[in-house]
Amino acid sequence: MTKYDLPKGMRYSTLVEREEFYNEEFKLESVEGWLENVMESPVFAVIIGRHTRIYPEKYREDASTTILIDEYRDLSDVKQQILEFLPESVYYDRNIYDEEGKVLGQEIAFDLDPENLTCPIHGSLEEKMKRGQGLSFCELELKRVRDETLRLYEELKTMFLQVRIVYSGRGFHIHILDRDAFGWSYDDKKKLALDFKAKGFLIDEWVTSGGMRLIRLPYSLHGMVSRIVTPLGIGELEDFDPIRDKRCIPNFLKPEVF
């Protein structure tokens, strides 16, 4: 049973379903293709069951902890570690480090989530939090945050050359892959975030400024909504419907949706 109200067709993934996805559908070649444009040998991270409270019993004490995967041979080894934890979420670290662990730079990203919009039906985020539904969202909010992402993308394309959109499972992420942008200071990124918030964009300032360095890994499973984190071209965004789009629906859920 889910704690949060979600659009029809979205629900928590079970441990069995998480295992099925990472065994059979998790595309390492696609992950590798994404990461080669970002960085080599990133740090990965998992959260086992912070929001869903679904976790292997042996990891009960660590269910809400962010667990880093920073020692691995290759992506196949990362996959095996993910299968050990069966997490609700998988991330990678946007920081670039030198051999001694010093931060050399960071990928800039924007995070847009549907619950941050004020819904004419369900109210503001503050109102939803008072009802214990801070992470809830509806289909209307999902469509509105998609439109907000499209608007933000058009603004960012006037500033950067390599701008990528990813459906994150609930909302959307926009990644800036221009190499010189990796060297921006915290103050530069903070100003960038505040400038866009001043224009009315409902972005997560903490993510853009770099205070939160983790970002959801493309092609992983968002276990809270049972959707695959899916990169999208700008031409695909306007009509993208994550409730029904087969690209982001894992095989274990398709019989329920179609």
At CATH level 2, the architecture is Alpha-Beta Complex
Number of strands: 12
Largest sheet: 4 strands, antiparallel
CATH superfamily: DNA primase, PRIM domain
- Order of helices and strands, N to C? HHEEHEEEEHHEEHHEEEEHH
Q: Mean of residue pLDDT?
A: 94
- Low-confidence runs: none
**Cα distance spanning the termini:** 21 Å
- Count every helix, treating DSSP H or I runs of 4 or more residues as helices: 9
Query: So what's the overall shape?
Result: globular
The amount of helix comes to 25-40%
Structural class: alpha+beta
CATH class: Alpha Beta
Total of domains? 1
Please give a structural write-up.
By secondary structure, the protein is an alpha+beta fold. Helix content is about 30%, strand content about 15%. The strands form 4 sheets. Strands 2-1-3-9 form a 4-stranded antiparallel beta sheet, with helices on one face. The protein has a 4-stranded antiparallel beta sheet with strand order 6-8-7-12. The protein starts with 14 loop residues before the first helix and ends with a helix. The mean pLDDT is about 95.
Task: Please outline what is shown here.
With 258 residues, this protein is α+β, with helices and mostly antiparallel strands. Helices cover 31% and strands 17% of the residues.
List keywords for this structure.
single chain; 258 residues; alpha+beta; four-stranded antiparallel sheet
Topology:
Layout: H1 15-24, H2 28-35, E1 44-47, E2 66-69, H3 75-85, E3 89-93, E4 95-97, E5 103-106, E6 108-112, H4 125-130, H5 139-156, E7 163-167, E8 172-176, H6 186-198, H7 205-209, E9 214-216, E10 221-222, E11 227-228, E12 230-232, H8 234-237, H9 254-257
Antiparallel strand pairs: 1-2, 1-3, 3-9, 4-5, 6-8, 7-8, 7-12, 10-11
